[in-house]
Amino acid sequence: MLLNYRRKTDPQGRRIVTIRQAISRWAPPSENDTAAYVNTVARRLGVDPDAPLDWGYAETLTGMARAIVTHENSRAPRDFPADWYSPEHYHRAAMMALGLTEV
């Protein structure tokens, strides 16, 4: 899903390249506290929410997925990893999405 945003545009017709653009499209203000969502994801990735990202890196996809899953689901239950899934699970999913490992 995150890789699909490389082909999408924001409401102004600009290609989606920032966290703010991606989250605003994924979680529009009419349905979410988009500003809080953007800030949470950007803080977790350690980047400016308006800085262009390279969606072709596993680290970017992994960080985005972990932040989105945690934001959407809140804290994981006690018996789960902190971000709901193991870091290895997120990394493998990113690698598969990028075609860098077999499914």
Question: Brief overview, please?
Answer:
This protein has 103 residues and is mainly alpha-helical. The protein is built from four helices and no strands.
Describe the structure.
With 103 residues, the chain is an all-alpha fold. Helices cover 46% and strands 0% of the residues. α1 packs across α2 (34-45), α2 crosses α3 (58-73) and α3 (58-73) packs across α4 (87-97). The chain is globular, with a radius of gyration of 14 Å. The mean pLDDT is 90.
- Tell me, what's the shape? globular
Poorly predicted runs are none
Strand content: under 5%
* Biggest beta-sheet profile: none
Helix share bin: 40-55%
Radius of gyration: 14 Å
The number of distinct β-strands equals 0
Listing every helix as H and every strand as E from the N terminus to the C terminus, the arrangement reads: HHHH
- What is the CA–CA distance across the termini? 16 Å
Query: Which structural category do the helix and sheet elements fall into?
Result: mainly alpha
Global mean pLDDT = 90
* Discrete helix count: 4
